[in-house]
Amino acid sequence: MHDIKNKLHIQLRKYGFPIFTVGNTSSNLYVNRFYQLIRNFQAAASNNSGSQLYYCVELGLNYFLIGNEVDYININHSGMPKGKIVPSQIRINAIEKDNRYFREKIGSRQEVQNWINDVLGINQIERVSVKKIRRIMMVETIRLLPSVLYISIKYGLIRILPFKIRGIIKKAIKYRLESSS
């Protein structure tokens, strides 16, 4: 999605590689489309690891990390400092394992499979009871309820209310935002 917006596909066409897209990553069809696409191949490669690596290997493709790793730069996300994105220690550890298994090709087939299963959470449902998952979902629902109501009022319900009530609600929202700052 971002590559298409940045017209990267136009630059890559000159190399003669087939270029595919499976759509917006936010789509609930994305993962199914991705799996349908990669079923047509025996191998995949990239210069950085990401979810595509784990999905490809889980489906049985040979995966290779080749070339120089890419540094990610934040140029406009307001929730993060501008400049080079520094990965967390968890991500650094994952990159090291990915490089070991897929760039340097060190490690047994079983080690690689265990790593992929761990990253994708395969076989981990046995470690967490249904009761605990249900409790987590209830706690998160209750925790997020004020935000959901706020968003619903601000962007949904407010559009169907009479103008006078809209004004009162907008003033209340503005007051809430100013008092929380």
Write the layout of secondary structure elements.
Blueprint (H helix, E strand, L loop, with lengths): L1 H4 L2 H6 L16 H9 L4 E4 L4 H9 L2 E4 L7 E2 L8 E2 L4 H15 L5 H12 L9 H27 L6 H18 L1
Parallel strand pairs: 1-2
Antiparallel strand pairs: 3-4
Helix pairs in contact: 4-6
What do you see in this structure?
With 181 residues, the chain is mainly alpha-helical. It has 8 helices and 4 strands; from the N terminus they run αααβαβββαααα. The strands form 2 sheets. Strands 1-2 form a two-stranded parallel ribbon. It has a two-stranded antiparallel sheet with strand order 3-4. β1, α4 (51-59) and β2 (62-65) form a beta-alpha-beta unit. α4 crosses α6. It is extended, with a radius of gyration of 23 Å. The mean pLDDT is 85.
Helical content band = 55-70%
Beta-strand percentage range: 5-15%
Task: List SSEs in N-to-C order.
Answer: HHHEHEEEHHHH
Low-confidence stretches: none
Determine the structural class based on helices, strands and strand pairing. mainly alpha
User: What is the total tally of β strands?
Assistant: 4
Average pLDDT level: 85
**Total of helices:** 8
What is the overall silhouette?
Answer: extended
Nearest-angstrom radius of gyration? Answer: 23 Å
- Largest beta sheet: strand ordering: 1-2
Distance between the termini: 34 Å
Major sheet? 2 strands, parallel
